[in-house]
Structure formats: structure tokens, C-alpha cells
């Protein structure tokens, strides 16, 4: 089955697409596309979301080298978005969280096509913006790693996505999403702003820690 709106195309081998996924794609995902300056795409350039059977997803993850980056994932973004069909996921994974994961990957595609910035050049930015805009709030970590670790070794640090959410919120609260989008192709300015905002977040973290002692 296939479903298309003005920006996204969703397909699955099943007879229907999860209603929560469709609501997410037609709602928050489209709203965020507008925020990134994307209002409509021709049929051959739609952003594709493939909802895969479990074995198919594992094969694709191996093909694109995703399994080497993450111990566990339910979706990833490459030339399109690939996600395990919800029916194959453990029942403890609630639909809302599942949709947030797909939305997270949609944001990655929107980030890339709106600026052309390769994710590998600013993983810290890609993940922070996606975690925050997808509302993937997690438990607040006890302490934050160094800016160097967050900036250059994101996938190796503990609680990386929880930290990314906090930093994404701090970044957008400080300078706004529109400004971030404007300067995403200027790595020097991005790194300078990122460093300043991260230091402010570290100071807040230290202050909050002392206040709870």
C-alpha cells in the first residue's frame, strides 16, 4: 500500500498504514517541512518512508552499514527513511514513541535537503535538532560530557540522545530554528554558536546539580 501527501510518500507491504504514522506525517512532519522552507515536492522527489518487514529492514541496515553505527534501531535515514513496520515491534514500544522515531528521521531528511550540509560534518547539530523537534525528551543525565566529546564523538558518549534533546532545546531557545537553518552551511559560525550554547547548558547543569545536593 502507498500513501502520498504534498511532501512525503509512505509505502508498506501491508494492506494498510498505521493510523498514528499517517497522523504524524500529515501533521507534525508537514509542519516541520514548512519550517524548513519546503512546501511541496513533485511526485518523483517526494521524501519516501518505507515501512519494512523485520527481515527486510535488517538487510537494508546491513546494506547501508547502519548496523555498524548503532546496536539497536527501529528506523534510519539514508536516501530515504526506512523503518520497521509497527506490527513487528515489541509491544512495549508505544505508538507515540514509534512515531517520534519516524519523525526524527524525517527531520534529518529535511535538514539535509534544505541546506545540503552532510550529516557527518555536524552530527551534534543533526541529532540535537531532530531530538528536540521530534519531542524525544528523555531522563536528564547527571552530568554533561565535554564539548569536544559531544561535538566530535557523539555516538560514543553516554546518554547522547538525552543530551542532544537538552542541547537542541537550548539552541533553538537561544537563536531560533529559522536562524539555525540560515547558517547551517556555515560550519565555522555553527561551531562557534554551538560551543557557546553548550557551555551555557553545562553551567546550568552544574548549578542544578548543586541545588539538588
Order of helices and strands: EEHEHEEHHHHHH
Between the first and last Cα atoms, what is the distance in angstroms?
A: 55 Å
Number of strands: 5
By secondary-structure content and strand pairing, the structural class works out as: alpha/beta
What is the average per-residue confidence, as pLDDT, rounded to a whole number? 89
- Tell me the overall shape: globular
**Helical content band:** 40-55%
> Which regions have little confidence, pLDDT < 50, spanning 5+ residues?
209-213
| Adjacency order of strands in the biggest sheet | 1-2-3-5-4
The quaternary structure here is: single chain
Strand content: 5-15%
* Main sheet summary: 5 strands, mixed
Radius of gyration: 18 Å
Number of helices: 8
Folded structure, characterized:
With 213 residues, this protein is α/β, with parallel strands linked by helices. 53% of the residues lie in helices and 10% in strands. It has 8 helices and 5 strands. Strands 1-2-3-5-4 form a 5-stranded mixed sheet. Helix 1 runs parallel beside helix 3 (95-115), helix 3 (95-115) packs across helix 4 and helix 6 (160-175) crosses helix 8. The longest helix is centred in the last third of the chain and has 26 residues, at 187-212. The model is unreliable at 209-213 (pLDDT under 50).
